[in-house]
Design goal:
The structure holds two protein chains of two kinds.
Chain A: H1 4-38, H2 43-48, H3 60-67, H4 71-102, H5 108-117, H6 127-134, H7 143-167, H8 172-179, H9 184-195, H10 197-212, H11 216-221, H12 230-244, H13 248-278
Helix pairs in contact in A: 3-13, 4-5, 4-7, 4-10, 4-12, 5-7, 7-10, 8-9, 10-13, 12-13
Chain B: H1 4-20, H2 27-61, E1 64-65, E2 73-74, H3 78-85, H4 87-118, H5 124-132, H6 139-150, H7 155-162, H8 174-202, H9 206-215, H10 219-230, H11 232-248, H12 251-256, H13 271-280, H14 288-313
Antiparallel strand pairs in B: 1-2
Helix pairs in contact in B: 2-14, 3-14, 4-8, 4-11, 4-13, 5-8, 6-8, 11-14, 13-14
The chains are: A mainly alpha, B mainly alpha.
């Protein structure tokens, strides 16, 4: 990169390209700021002067969304459901991935590939039989049912992700533990699992992000308002707007309830999230 | 992926050695083997029960006429023929293909341009983080926002009016709506693929570009002869990911219609919307057979495309 021609090319790229990139970046930031600003504005102002900042902070938007719009209970449902799913996913996928990647069993390779096939199965290819089987068992319209469903459908990615992670850990520690007389299960729970902590945390993060906005299964399997998750509350709120008139202020307050936790998470752990989501492909 | 191989080989080598000589199987190795099933089975059974078995069951349902309750009537391939004669399905399927190939092409071109532009930009990691962000926001939220942006008295039109365009196009009219939806999906996805491709391009050693400079190669030649071949396998992976993700597109289109009870106009449906509405239509008898058939067609499409992509993109691995 030291000759004059590349320098010139670089300069041209910077002059033309940089504004384009920053325009894209500015657009994204603007969208986010605009959502947050609109969540504190009156509906009238959102329509008439969409670009203005709020004249005063209209917290009543949030109050309406939280109570009348059902975002309060929905946030709680989502929170518990998403947390429970992430926990169960890690508890099941971590031992499985460890066994598949490190125990050297003959069927491990085939089983890992079989799990990977699950990555390509869309929700609409499985919901019919699942609904038919889960309804008589009382698992439809039931958060436990959705929890089971989320955990089960998380397995392909979780196993795919964690096998890659366990594979990258050094084998010496396992061997040393064996020489010290640690049992294999002790080795897993006390030595390998703590070593894989960073991978597990990333997996939990990605799992939470995935299910925070999951719509298809929730829409099919939950009908009762008390059991709504946040995406359903959003859809329900939009439905109400058709009858009660547009309440864009309330809607954007609801959107802020959905998006703000993600923004916080992203600012806090963004690098980890990006690396996790692109791992296995960028490597 | 290449970096993981030595580790894996090292991990399996000792166990294999132990099992090869019968006498060498110590109690420890046997103990380790005993751990395998209890560790793998819970995850596998759950996966098989909730994903693998239902796929098979869906294929079975697709050969029947069924309203979800009552008797199932065997109709063979009739659901498929009926479906392909249905203009709504043909639109949905066409949209799926359009998103897959048209949307995919635009997304990948944009991702490459962004990667090249970001290469030596000051503040690139900040820019990358911001561009990536729409990816972790639920598609439902992006869709609601997108709808508001493009609606008649929405943001875009108010911006256009302020610069003197009194009659902006009807963005959400039937014939434009799917294009607007695709634009939204492309906006959402670009950051993701840019990040993946960027990571691959970053691994290309700089001396290759220095060689290019010495040989007097221009930007296009640099891209064509260094960047593209050396990130080829990652592009292949991206293509697989895009295929899978595009097939899953659902809530983005659903929310454009405004709510769960009224469905969006059929001109914007994709195969997943078609499957959903065949069962949960606000009016009419649920048609499980048809829904299942459309799901099977999507699955087959994913399968064929993934195999094709892997075939087409396979090349001799370039060591660098």
């Amino acid at each position: 990169m030291s000759t004059a021609s590349t320098l010139r090319a670089g300069r041209a790229q910077r002059l033309l390209g940089a504004p384009l990139v920053w325009a894209f970046v500015a657009f994204n930031v603007l969208v986010l700021v605009w959502i947050l600003a609109s969540s504190a504005k009156e509906t009238r102002d959102i329509i008439t002067s969409p670009w203005a900042l709020p004249d005063a902070l209209h917290w009543d938007n949030f109050e309406r969304a939280w109570n009348a719009g059902n975002f309060g209970p929905a946030a709680l449902n989502s929170f518990v459901l998403v947390g429970g799913t992430a926990l169960a996913t890690v508890l099941l996928a971590a031992p499985a991935s460890y066994a598949l990647s490190r125990l050297g069993a003959r069927s491990a390779g085939a089983a890992t590939s079989l799990f990977a096939i699950g990555l390509g199965i869309p929700a609409h290819a499985v919901f019919l039989p699942l609904y038919q089987v889960m309804a008589p068992l009382g698992l439809v319209n039931n958060l436990w049912g959705l929890w089971l469903l989320y955990t089960a459908t998380s397995m392909p990615f979780a196993v795919f992700f964690l096998t890659g992670f366990f594979r990258s850990l050094p084998a010496e520690l396992e061997e040393a533990a064996a020489l010290d007389g640690a049992s294999p299960s002790y080795t897993f729970w006390r030595i390998m699992l703590p070593l894989a902590r960073s991978g597990l945390i990333t997996l939990v993060l990605l799992n939470v992000i995935n299910h925070w906005g999951e719509t298809f299964f929730a829409l099919v399997f939950i009908q009762e308002q008390d059991l709504q998750t946040l995406p359903l509350a959003l859809l329900g709120f939009m439905q109400q707007m058709q009858y009660n008139g547009a309440d864009w202020g309330g809607l954007f307050a609801g959107i802020a309830v959905v998006v703000l936790p993600l923004v916080g998470l992203y600012i806090w752990l963004g690098r980890r999230i990006i690396e996790g989501m692109t791992l296995g492909s960028g490597k | 992926m290449t970096t993981a191989v030595p580790d894996a080989a090292r991990a399996t080598a000792p166990t294999r050695r132990r099992t090869a000589g019968r006498a060498a199987v110590g109690p420890f190795a046997a103990h380790r083997k005993r751990l395998y099933l209890p560790f793998v089975l819970p995850a596998f059974l759950l996966y098989a029960a909730f994903l693998l078995a239902p796929v098979v069951a869906t294929a079975w349902i697709s050969l029947h006429a069924w309203a979800g309750a009552g008797p199932m009537e065997w109709v063979g391939a009739e659901n498929y023929t009926r479906m392909f004669l249905d203009p709504v399905f043909r639109t949905s399927f066409g949209n799926t293909l359009l998103l897959l190939f048209g949307g995919g092409t635009v997304t990948f071109l944009l991702s490459f341009v962004l990667t090249m532009l970001l290469r030596d930009l000051a503040g690139r990691s900040t820019a990358r983080s911001v561009i990536f962000f729409p990816n972790i926001v639920p598609a439902l939220v992006i869709s609601i926002l997108w709808g508001f942006l493009f609606q008649a008295d929405g943001l875009l039109n108010s911006a256009l009016r302020s610069i003197g365009i009194a009659h902006p196009p009807a963005w959400l009219a039937e014939e434009n709506q799917f294009k607007v939806i695709m634009l939204g999906i492309i906006w959402m996805s670009t950051g993701y693929y840019t990040t993946i491709i960027m990571a691959a391009v970053d691994r290309i050693p700089p001396y290759l570009y220095e060689d290019c400079a010495l040989a007097g190669a221009n930007a296009w030649q640099r891209f064509r002869h260094v960047t593209l071949p050396l990130s080829w396998d990652v592009i292949g992976i991206c293509a697989v990911l895009w295929t899978i993700n595009a097939m899953k597109t659902f809530e983005f289109i659903l929310a454009m219609a405004g709510s769960a009870s009224s469905m969006p106009s059929t001109s914007t449906w994709t195969a997943s919307l078609y499957a959903y509405t065949s069962v949960f239509a606000p009016t009419g008898v649920p048609q499980y057979g048809i829904a299942a058939a459309s799901a099977v067609v999507t699955l087959a499409l994913v399968g064929v495309l993934v195999v094709l992509i892997r075939r087409l993109m396979r090349r001799e691995a370039l060591e660098f």
